[in-house]
Structure prediction request, 358 residues.
Amino acid sequence: MYVAVKGGEAAIEAAHGWLAEARRGDPSVPALSPDQVREQLSLAVARVMAEGSLYDEELAALAIKQARGDLIEAIFLVRAYRTTLPRFGAARPVDTARMRPIRRVSATFKDAPGGQVLGPTFDYTHRLIDFALAAEGEPPVAREAAARAEATPHILDFLGKDGLIQQEAPTEETPPDLTRQPLELPASRPLRLQALTRGDEGFMLGMAYSTQRGYGRNHPFVGELRIGMVAVELDIPELGFAIEVAEVMVTECETVNQFAGSKTEPPQFTRGYGLVFGQSERKAISMALVDRALRWRELGEENVGAPAQDEEFVLYHSDNIQGTGFVEHIKLPHYVDFQSELELIRKIRADAMREAAE
Prediction:
């Protein structure tokens, strides 16, 4: 560390002061509050919660402010804080079939049971800068309050009734917890899904895009994309039943993929799955595509050598906190290491010059 250098501690304290000054910016401009971040930068808050593995909008907003908008730094702050929290128990798996969606669309069925709900989305905007947003005292947009839809069943369940899509085998086995245990390979699908939902959104998008371009057997349709509130329930042994302790917003995506069959599975559709905290459509869809690509072994498919099919490559390189630590550590002092490299190169050059002279 730089503290090993003479005067390093004072320099670090000065750097902290400079960072605080840079984070505040022009004092004549009103300070940004965590409430403003939470309410007006909600998609950034959702990403920090998802990749930080902690659903806390206030904390994520504060971390974004502290990190000056660097979302990976904010995710790091949230994960570090998460390790200090006591653990009271494990909640039941959330039942997304009981979700009250604010958005629910399908690219496979026009007249989906329960209807399509467009909800808040950029999909139908013109992607033109709205300079009215820069106006002082911007008036609120007048609109009717959006009515939340009632709980609706999953669209892919209707394919399942006709035996047209692969059925997921139920299990009572408790999945490993990636936040408390190191990743081990080969990973079970529940463990892979944990890693994918914590994975960097940009990396996941790149992997998903690669599968669509032919680097992995992936020809997907979005069977259903839904965003809404789900209940979190906790079993209370003293009461003998579960109680609802919270309600959280999640984004869920199920993709439908072509599958010609294999030695172990008949021709049918298969699915990829993504579930992410908050509204995070790009991440949920990308996660579903990568999940499907990683299922080649259990479906008896051929591995064509695509990056998205390589479990070790995807899972070990998707974590942006681990990646950041390993990449950025090289800016810290490596004086002794470099001096040894320097001496080695000098010796090799001297030997080569001596041989050339002889």
Notes: DSSP finds twelve helices and four strands in the chain. The longest strand covers residues 220-236. Residues 49 and 55 are 5 Å apart (CA to CA).
